[in-house]
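Lesson 9: reading folded outputs for more than one chain in a single document. The general rule is that every protein is listed as its sequence immediately followed by its structure tokens, and records are never interleaved. Here is the first one.
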Amino acid sequence: MLELYYLIKLRLCRLIIFRITTSLTQGLILYIYFYLFQGRTHFEIFLLVNLNSDRIIIISISMSGNDMEEYIVKILDIEKVTHDVNKYKVERPDGYNFIPGQATEVSINKAGLKDERRPFTFTGLTSWDYLQFIIKSYEDHDGVTNILKTLKPGYELLLHDVWGAINYKGPGVFIAGGAGVTPFISILRNLKHENKISGCKLIFSNKTSEDIILKDELTSILGADFINVLTREKNKDYFYGRIDEAFLREQISDFSQHFYVCGPDSFVQNINSILLNIGASADSLVFEK
């Protein structure tokens, strides 16, 4: 039963660090698991005590790398960005720092919702005295994002440890699908603030022009290096279709630079595959693994 439980559970994990299984004595088996899930390191101990052929006791101890860190913050302001995306301005705890591109798990400080954590990316400048999240609400199913959009300033959220693998390594091409642009917003804003935006390009795929997040600001930051692609709307101001090999060859001349990719899993896998096929090295690809 225990092994079946872990076969199911570990399928959800991004990386299993290691597992120890040892028989301490007859009828006493110790399982120790270390694994990564949603950017956090988890540690679990299971001790099986086989009392007889009919009775087994399972003693479980579990903890995760950020169980000790939890911050209560108030929502300061909520502003509409697109028809299904909102900008949330929240309090910043003392000493709470992040690197552009990183994220944290957020939950709503209400009974029944505190444990409903969801990963969201920081989108503000690192120098701001508040935190900002830009979050898409998915109206096709009930969930935390739909509850978030109903909240008002003054409501409380729970923040946890900072994590994330999309860190800026140098000028390059950012390729985003939909809400996958959010890790890039803080990176690009900070680069613009530090006058280091030169050499960066953003290729942004959305269904329609109404879905483009921060269109005016990103145009101001990147100018002609902000390229929009629409998959469900033909518009003379934007490219139409899906990002494929031909499109990337047309838009990119140097495949030895860094490539930052974020979006739905299938989008990331497809773009990475194309980039590798046309000359980019695996080391040049930066994405959430």
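And here is the second record, again sequence then tokens.
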Amino acid sequence: MNTSRKASSRWGAGLLAALSATVMLASSGALAQSKSVKLVSDPYPPYVMDEPNSKGFVTEMAIKILKDAGYQAEYVNVPYKRALAGLDEGAYDGLLAVSPGREGYTYPENGFGTLQTAFFVMKSSAWEYKGKESLSAVTLGVIDGYEFSGGETGGFKLDDYVKANKANSKLVQPNFGTDALERNMKKLADGRISAMVEDSSVFWYTAKKMGMTDKFKAAGTLNAPEKLAVGFNLKNPRAKELAKVISDGVQKLKDSGEYKKILDKYGLK
């Protein structure tokens, strides 16, 4: 009887220890997962880059902020539409270098800077953006999945125009993939499209990198400057928490002078 009781007692203790270990592992795994943050975007220089020594100043700042706050942060480079799908499914946490306005997202109060969307053409072109009617004279290159805020004068919204004409290659030509920006610029230079729409800083930064600044000119802006931020899908239970961490962190970077140091690294002010 005594042996049986001892054996039973040892088995019970062993089971308890095993269960405790399992619970601890599960808890530590859940904790690690709750502190892990995946930031996603296609390359969008100088904001988001995928080069050995340059990740883009928004990526660099966001990762520093999150790590300083105790999170394990990483950047994932995927095509924009795939990034949106992954955010919707919970595979990623934050969408880098966007302006507020996408439905179902929340954004930090403090931004990293500003974005301004503009139209670009070859230097020899006489075309200039003057609202919806002017778009019928060009073949417009866009990146698939991008949303364009602004252009709403008189009820017109560029997003609606792009969606309505995506199947008409004479009016709109979407490009896909992580090199969609560069391919759109090459198409513009080759005459396969006659205009493209893009953030001004991104366009000129990429044109300089490609040695093509002398080929293009701006042809009007779509909107006033907007906040440059990280977007968090509200399906993510941590969305508001992470937005606040980023917002507070941006202010800390500015107060400490680290914000300016990172901008200087990219030749920006």
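What the second record shows: Residues 1-31 have pLDDT under 50 and may be disordered.
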